[in-house]
Write a structure and sequence with these properties.
The complex is a heterodimer.
Chain A (H helix, E strand, L loop, with lengths): L8 E6 L2 E6 L6 H8 L18 E4 L2 E4 L12 E3 L12 H8 L9 H14 L5 H7 L11 H15 L1
Parallel strand pairs in A: 1-5
Antiparallel strand pairs in A: 1-2, 3-4, 3-5
Helix pairs in contact in A: 2-5, 3-5
Chain B lengths: L4 E3 L4 H10 L3 E4 L5 H6 L7 E4 L9 E3 L3 E5 L4 H5 L2 H6 L1 H8 L4 H6 L2 H7 L6 H8 L2 E4 L3 E3 H4 L14 E7 L3 E8 L6 E10 L2 E7 L10 H9 L24 H19 L4
Parallel strand pairs in B: 1-3, 2-3
Antiparallel strand pairs in B: 4-5, 5-8, 6-7, 6-8, 9-10, 10-11
The chains are: A alpha+beta, B alpha+beta.
Bound molecules: flavin-adenine dinucleotide.
């Protein structure tokens, strides 16, 4: 049946490193990432499953880590914004957000970049409409999205090489 | 979120067993509704029985006359399924328009039906196609499954295992999404089936998904968008909330029905 006790022990890969931890059943994946693993690039925005600031990849797919239990990631591969490029460097999507100033306050940016990376993995050459549809789960309260969409289109181009 | 005991069964039998052994259990499917509900303290189960590792609940089977989809099949999987698209393209349109990409990667058909949100998309496909819901106990016809807002005829602990959708001659789904949540402000599923025309409306009814008699009658006579010119739907039993008034929803039902019929007829 799996876990008998109140405190399940989980083992998962985060950004390529195998980690083990004890959680409560109710511990959210975002809490485990931020508070136990101290990976604070993943942001909790609304905490009501709307805004997408907490988006990470679970086995390659974008999910809202505030709307998943940590124990459900047991055995999975999780990638956070910190896993996209080595410390001090930026991957092409991050660079595109920088080049196009696809942000103002920056709070939504990690989730935007993670969602954009998953979108481009599924659809390497998206149209502007596909980018806008693909980002529906990520809310930005500053930019009006223009520069974010431009950044994703350019980041996709850079990733196609 | 309050504490609960978490279990992770591997089979449907273990899941129903764990549910009945617990004091006050809830199943968790994609968690896209349940986790927000738990965070707000709107439900405080003693036990959460996670269905995510029950592999006999996921998957898609298409036969000559029906599409059967396992309860744990995620919206993104249905949306991307070439088999479903080949048999009932309106279902892939519907699944691909639920919420957003992240929600579709977790949310499941069974969870959506058990929840029966009055603005959810799947209930309209189940009612519109006259599908059958298979649980661990019985088979429930669509016309008997839904029981008003956020309510179904599922018994406590009854587990949805799959849904079987008869393949229609043609079908279409159109929704006017709430611009903020993407839920249906009004969504209309139309189907021309061997047994006649069926239409189901979500997002509008005070008692959840329903079949609008006026629209069904007009489309039974002539399955075309033009047949709906001048047809009106009474606003009496429709919802009024901060997003839209009942008469606006009544108007949208006919507009969305026309779009759904055009889609079914391959006209956009
Ligand atoms: C931002 C956002 C936008 C959304 N937009 C839409 C939208 O546009 N359209 C739409 O239709 N939905 C929308 N949803 C809801 C989404 O589709 C959910 O996935 C769905 O309502 C619930 O499915 P779930 O698998 O997540 O179930 P859960 O949240 O895990 O469970 C929901 C309920 O169903 C019960 N349950 C789950 N599985 C079973 C089963 N097999 N048998 C019996 N009971 C079961 C649970 O106990 C619980 O009570 C949205 C959600 C979010 C967060």
């Amino acid at each position: 049946m799996g876990f008998e006790g109140a405190m399940p022990e989980i083992s998962l890969s985060i950004n390529g490193a195998q980690v083990t931890g004890t959680v409560e059943g109710r511990t959210l994946l975002v809490e485990f990432i931020r508070e136990t693993m101290k990976l604070t690039g993943t942001h909790t925005g609304c905490d009501t499953s709307q805004c997408g600031a907490c988006t990470v990849h679970l086995d390659g797919k974008a999910v809202k880590s505030c709307t998943m239990l940590a124990v459900q990631a047991d055995g999975a591969e999780v990638t956070t914004i910190e896993g996209l490029a080595p410390e001090g460097e930026m991957n092409p999507m991050q660079q595109a957000f920088n080049d196009h100033h696809g942000l103002q306050c920056g709070f939504c940016t990690p989730g935007m970049v993670m969602r954009a990376m998953a979108l481009v993995a599924e659809n390497p050459d998206p149209t502007e409409a596909e980018v806008r549809h693909g980002l529906e789960g990520n809310i930005c309260r500053c930019t009006g999205y223009q520069n974010i969409v431009a950044a994703v289109l350019d980041g996709a181009k850079a990733l196609r090489g | 979120m309050e504490e609960f005991t978490y279990t992770r069964p591997a089979t449907a039998d273990d899941a129903t067993g764990a549910h009945s052994a617990a004091e006050d259990a809830m199943y968790m499917a994609g968690g896209q509704t349940l986790i927000p509900v738990l965070k707000q303290g709107l439900a405080m189960p003693t036990d959460v029985v996670d269905l995510n590792r029950v592999d006999d609940l996921a998957g898609i089977q298409v036969t000559g006359d029906a599409v059967t989809i396992g309860a744990m099949t995620r919206h993104a999987v249905v949306a991307a399924s070439a088999e479903v698209k080949g048999a009932i393209p309106a279902l892939t349109v519907l699944a691909g328009g639920i919420g957003d990409a992240q929600v579709r990667n977790r949310g499941t058909m069974g969870g959506s039906l058990a929840n029966n949100d009055p603005s959810a998309d799947y209930p309209s496909a189940v009612l519109g196609l006259g599908a059958t819901v298979t649980t661990n106990q019985r088979e429930i016809p669509a016309d008997e499954f839904f029981d008003g807002m956020f309510a179904t005829n599922l018994e406590d602990g009854e587990l949805i295992k799959s849904v079987t959708y008869p393949i229609p001659e043609k079908a279409g789904y159109a929704k006017f999404p709430n611009p903020a949540s993407r839920y249906a402000l009004v969504g209309v599923f139309v189907a021309k089936t061997a047994g006649g025309v069926r239409v189901a409306v979500t997002g509008a009814g005070q008692d959840g998904v329903f079949r609008p008699a006026e629209v069904e009658a007009a489309l039974s006579a002539d399955f075309s968008a033009a047949a709906l010119d001048g047809v009106t739907v009474p606003a009496d039993d429709l919802m009024t909330d901060m997003h839209a008034a009942a008469d606006y929803r009544a108007h949208l039902i006919v507009v969305m029905a026309k779009r759904a019929v055009n889609q079914a007829n391959g006209q956009g």
